Amino acid sequence: MYRARTATPTAEPEDAWREKQRQLAEARVRLLAAKNGEASVPPPSPTAPQSPAPSPPAPLAASAEPAPERSPREASAVSKLISEIAAGLGETGSAARHGIYVLLKRQGDAFVHEHVAKARGVEASGGMLTLDGQRRRTLGGVFFFLAKKTVGEEAWCQMFPLPSKRRPHSTRSPSSPAPALPTPTAPPTASTKTTQPGEARTVKVTLIGRPDPVEVRDTFIETTMVNRKAPDLPKGLPAPPKEPTRWRVFIGKKTWARVESALATDPTDMLVVEAWGAFDASVGVMTAYAMNATTVALQRAAKASKPALGAP
């Protein structure tokens, strides 16, 4: 915008020139905000002094409560404690350190140390598998699994909220017409309808091998059997996990009495267990509940004692 000048032009005062540049900048900001669908920024009063723009708020931590102010010495002690706990769990990533920090802040030192001890106990007793049973959890993974189980799903989600997805800015101008609604299609036929969820009505697991030392309970015995090598699988199937699969086996006392002496007499004999298998999420291992148990030697002896077909 130009002003009418007299015959003798004079230079525009510097203050007026800066004020004009400021007004142009504010107009550009309001125009950009209007295009992005944001509320327009009202122009400041020409008489009010211009205060500096407020700094953006600092990002909130995972916890809903604000972090208390700490002295440099306290902050250093907390950082050292987090480093010691993370090193003891074998975790070096920033995500694990943040998780330990949140648990220390919300649940306290005693809670964290207690669950570190529980995780080490689980690790000493054979470890814990992931929910899909494909691999063994790390010590840090066991720690966070046990802590989440104690805290509860709802409280855990409050302490560790999932990041919200930001909606992209619309590129459609306000004057452009709204997109047309999709034309409704015909209902799916019987052949294209979604089928019912899959169901396994019968599960049967056969374990063959030497069991670990037996623990005698009231009405059953408990032992473990570890599968470390996969068989030759048909072509086209995905590669099986390399980690061994640990099975916790429960056998009734009467059934165990029939095979105990055979296994003790022949150290090369192998236990054969036909069982129903399930994944026990409380301990993170596969569990077999024996319906029948025998040994390879007992099977051979039973087969040899049967008369051959056609014999008199």
* Rg over alpha carbons: 35 Å
Order of helices and strands: HHHHHHEEEEHEEH
List the uncertain runs.
Answer: 6-11, 44-51, 53-67
Strands side by side in the biggest sheet: 1-5-6-4-3-2
Helix count?
Answer: 8
Mean pLDDT: 76
Summarize the structure.
By secondary structure, the protein is α+β, with helices and mostly antiparallel strands.
Structure description:
36% of the residues lie in helices and 14% in strands. The chain is an alpha+beta fold and 312 residues long. Among the domains are: 73-159, PHAX RNA-binding domain (Arc Repressor Mutant, subunit A), CATH 1.10.10.1440; 205-230 and 242-304, Nucleic acid-binding proteins (OB fold (Dihydrolipoamide Acetyltransferase, E2P), Beta Barrel), CATH 2.40.50. The chain has a six-stranded mixed beta sheet with strand order 1-5-6-4-3-2. It starts with 13 loop residues before the first helix and ends in a 7-residue tail after the last helix. Mean pLDDT is 76; it is low at 6-11, 44-51 and 53-67.
